[in-house]
Fold this sequence. Notes:
Blueprint: H1 6-13, H2 15-19, H3 30-71, H4 77-88, H5 91-101, H6 105-128, H7 132-151, H8 161-185, H9 192-223, H10 227-232, E1 284-289, E2 295-298, H11 299-303, E3 308-315, E4 326-335, H12 337-343, E5 351-356, E6 361-365, H13 366-370, E7 376-381, E8 384-385, E9 395-397, E10 411-417, E11 440-445, E12 451-452, E13 455-464, E14 470-477, E15 482-484, E16 486-487, E17 497-506, E18 509-519, E19 541-547
Parallel strand pairs: 1-10, 12-19
Antiparallel strand pairs: 1-2, 3-4, 4-7, 5-6, 5-10, 7-8, 7-9, 11-13, 13-17, 14-15, 14-18, 16-17, 18-19
Helix pairs in contact: 3-6, 3-8, 3-9, 4-6, 4-7, 6-7, 7-8, 8-9
The structure holds the ligand Nc1nc2c(c(=O)[nH]1)N[C@H]1C(S)=C(S)[C@@H](COP(=O)(O)O)O[C@H]1N2 and molybdenum atom.
Molybdenum atom (MO) is lined by residues 269, 316-318, 402-404.
Amino acid sequence: MSEQQPGGVRGRAGDRSAADPGGEDAQQEPGFTTAKTRLTALGGRIARGALVGLVAGGAGLAVGQLLAVATGEASSPVVAAGDWAISITPTWLEQFAIRNFGSNDKTVLLTGVYVTVAVGAAALGVLARTRLTIASTVTAVFGVVGALAAVTRPSATMGWLVPSLLAGLAAALVLRQLTLLSLKESKPVSEPSDRRRFVLGTVGTAAGALVAGYGGRMWVKKRYDVSGARAKVVLPTPENALPEPPASAHPNVRGLDPFITPNSEFYRVDTALTLPRVDPGDWKLKIHGMVDRPFEITFDELLSYRFEEHDMTLTCVSNPVGGPYVGNARWLGTPLAPLLRRAGVRRGVDMILSTSADGMTIGSPVEAVLDGRQAMLAVAMNGEALPIRNGFPCRMLIPGLYGYVSATKWLTDLNLTTFASSDAYWTPRGYSPQAPVKTASRIDVPAKGAKVPAGAVVLAGTAWANHRGIAAVEVQIDNGPWREATLATADTPDTWRQWSYQWENASKGSHKVKVRATDGTGAVQTPDVQDVVPNGATGYHAITVQVS
Ligand SMILES: Nc1nc2c(c(=O)[nH]1)N[C@H]1C(S)=C(S)[C@@H](COP(=O)(O)O)O[C@H]1N2
Ligand SMILES: [Mo]
């Protein structure tokens, strides 16, 4: 190809070499010049190809984003690809992500998707300069792959095919057009107007993609926004007038989390890359499966039922020893047991397979709902309608069980079935089908790595054994004897219990402090170290305190 000739590149450097014939190129050996200009030419072609690829990819994503305004945020190519990636993420990688990125894992994943698309698009842009048909075809095929990823999401409709399919086509078209313009522009005989066309085409498409992509994002958020509907929910009055938790439920130690976790600080764990936005006006709950009288209720019907308030701690199975994925809130919900009785649960049924608006499935033991504990369909948390991130408009809660087997957010469906015949989402991924919360305790004060003055040091923390309650907490300093901590007032067996301990005469130096709890049945927390998978971490939380 002529563009590979050194002359071609000189010609492009054009103005300068013409005006300055004694420029640095002219003073160098011809062989070196050739190699250098060749390299420069190659670099230029790669850069242009990559640029064109990126602009084409961006244009495709923008088209996908705009179309997702019609089909929903989760159907946009990037979100669909991310959701698909989450669904195939092996458990070890998921654990790695939770451990290292915590609640930023979703940002990390989305960034990963963007980077992957960018690298692929740039590579296709470079390829397009020599293999245009192949590159545009592969681009369109990526759209098809994205569409398949989207349509196989559990909550997808056929419409979810559209954004990615058309995104791929748009990207392929842009790639083709801009590559042709670019090839023309880089020919030795190119006219200034060729260059103008290429620059305008590239810059114009990039600008259009940015506007459409950003606009589409804003538009889709606005169109599916339910914060207005959430603000309008009139919460039912609970039948039990529950007094505030006693002030003495908190040991009144500075730095210790409040007894009730504010909604803004409540942990969030789910697989939803974009929050499901469920309009209570459209919400329906179906109760069906192995029952005598399946039925469906609307949100207004739900609100007409009997509601109760209950304080309850929620814990994630993925919480490492000493970790943050636990919170305590006052929930307002309608008891779940009467709903199951109304449906008439058949003999042999032992599992409620609940499904959320985003297709999560959670399997819970029917027995835990019918044994008298306060299992509920909750609509409010700490006095306000459920925050969207915590499951608005309705979530399930069963005291005593980890969230992944009880706490379905954005709940839409209850299927009465059996553990033998049904798998919930996390079961084939290595987690136990049933998982009561294990007794755990945590040292929160002093904070990890903090320096404290010698003398009297206050230790404080939190312990939980959901639904069994906490009967004792002990601390151990430098492998000395276990000493009883002071327990704050218990609220309910379903809530965590905070504790404090006066450590007299802490001497200068580094000390190791450990904690362990005894649950309401008298069982002492196990020291055996076990990982999060398959049913919750165990072992004692220990910190090092620097006394100076
Ligand atoms: N729809 C849906 N519900 C879900 C999950 C999810 O991924 N999707 N995660 C569960 C898990 S693992 C936990 S620990 C709790 C966390 O609830 P929170 O985010 O309100 O703290 O929600 C549960 N409910
Ligand atoms: Mo969880």
